[in-house]
Amino acid sequence: MSKPVKQHIASVALLVENYAEAIEFYTEKLNFVITQDVDTGDSNRFVQISPSHSGDCHLLLLKAESEQDIAAVGNQAGGKVFLILQTDDFWRDYKKMQSKGVVFNEQPREEPYGTVVVFQDLYGNKLDLIESK
Known about the structure:
133 residues; 2,3-Dihydroxybiphenyl 1,2-Dioxygenase, domain 1; four-stranded mixed β-sheet; globular
């Protein structure tokens, strides 16, 4: 009998213009934490961030360097929602994000699956903040 395959997504790559400004946005405005920050040389770093208390999935910040990379910054998902940030208290997090100047693309709405709002990161990537029902 074969052993079951155990896999999970450990990181999702996010192209950024600048490590410091991306770290500041995600940690100060969205309350993420730095899980790794290692200088790999040649002005590159291995930077992983994640929402506090999130488990094993992280964002891996990658500095955009090529023309193709730079063109993709802020357009990670071709204009669609790139990531979904799940919360246990929508209104707490929404109000905190508002007070910190996060840009929202719409007013919060109730959907059959929960309370949701689309917001932007510092480069214009779209994210959902959602509290499931």
